[in-house]
Amino acid sequence: MKLVDICNMIESSVMKLVEADGIKAGRAFPTGCSLNHVAAHYTPNTGDDTVLGVDDVMKLDFGVHVGGRIIDSAFTVHHNPKFDPLIQAVRDATNTGVKAAGIDVRLGDIGAAIQEVMESYEIELDGKVYPIKPIQNLCGHSIIPYVIHGGKSVPSVRGREMTKMEEGEYFAIETFGTTGKGYVNEDMDCSHYMKRPDAPHVALRSAGAKSLLAHINKNHGTLAFCRRWLDAEGQPRHLMALKHLVEAGIIDPCPPLCDVKGSYTAQFEHTFVLKPTCKEVLSRGTDY
Fold first, then answer.
1. What is the dihedral of CA 195, 196, 202, 204, to 10 degrees?
2. 148-183: b or e for each residue (b if 16 or more CB lie within 10 Å)?
3. Which residues of 242-253 are buried (b: 16+ CB within 10 A; e: fewer)?
């Protein structure tokens, strides 16, 4: 199955289930379907006909929002059972992070709990044993209306982060495990973009950039979007205008994040809200 068909199926279902209404309700960000050493921020651009293979490890990261309230969620798809230990390690680590979270809990303490669980696993691939490592520069995050990364980061490794979670806050706990270096870098063609919440007011000279910005403001605001969506929304010749908006500091590019080639990465993620007397996991279902 083509990755673009998987993404379109998920996004169409999201829009139908929440009765999509422009920027008021619908997709919160492009569906990620990152494969193998690519950990995050990959979705097919128009013309990318990549097909999911039997030995691929795919991270499906998708989101929904109503009135700007975002639920961010992810799980990993694999068909070869040799990857079971990697998937179990990351599922266990994410669930540990969710369990450890709470009002007045230090973010660094959550990272320590996640790391301890993740590193207790190992995996054998083609006769070689690999320790499963947390990807240290990918973190969970707080969420505020219409902004997916709300300012607080939840690490996946132990550290000195003393910031605490507070009542009423929304968080996404996401962990990534890898057989590689445990550190990702930007690589490959960019598909994800997002208007900065603190975007400066810039006198744009390009008519194309002005038109594209008006379209983004109307249809996406500060929610993430992708080039494939712009094509479908009647903005097929957007690349140069998008480049101008990036150079002006209005739009942030979010390129794919990759560990070393030949490695395998997995991801699980859940969103919750901290209520006065409980922690409600908003993305939990019977499947993951």
1. -20
2. bbbebbbbbbbeebeeebeeebbbbbbbbbbbbebe
3. bebbeebebbee
Could you read off the pLDDT of 156-194 as tens digits, one per residue? 999 988 999 999 999 999 999 999 999 999 999 999 999
Task: Take residue 184 and report the two structure tokens written for it.
Answer: 């990702």
Please give the positions annotated as active site. 61, 72, 141, 149, 174, 269
Q: What's the token pair of residue 156?
A: 């996946």
How many CB atoms sit inside 10 A of residue 187's CB?
Answer: 15
CA distances in angstroms from 61 to 7, 30, 76, 202, 245, listed in the order given: 10, 8, 9, 33, 26
Measure the CA dihedral 30/67/17/270, to 10°: 60
Query: In this structure, are residues 135 and 178 in contact, taking their beta carbons and an 8 Å threshold?
Result: yes
Rg (CA), the chain: 19
CA–CA gap between residue 196 and residue 93 (Å, rounded) = 31
Burial classification of residue 88, based on how many CB atoms lie within 10 Å of its CB (0-12 exposed, 13-18 middle, 19 or more buried): middle
Give the pTM.
0.96
Q: Helix (H, G, I), strand (E, B), or coil: what is residue 66?
A: strand
Helix residue spans in 158-253 (DSSP H): 207-219, 227-232, 239-247
Yes or no: say if 118 and 133 are a contact pair by the CB < 8 Å rule: yes
Tell me: the pLDDT tens digits for 19-64?
A: 999 999 999 999 999 999 999 999 999 999 999 999 999 999 999 9
Identify the residue whose tokens are 């694999």: 78
Alpha helices (H) in 52-124, listed in sequence order? 84-100, 107-118
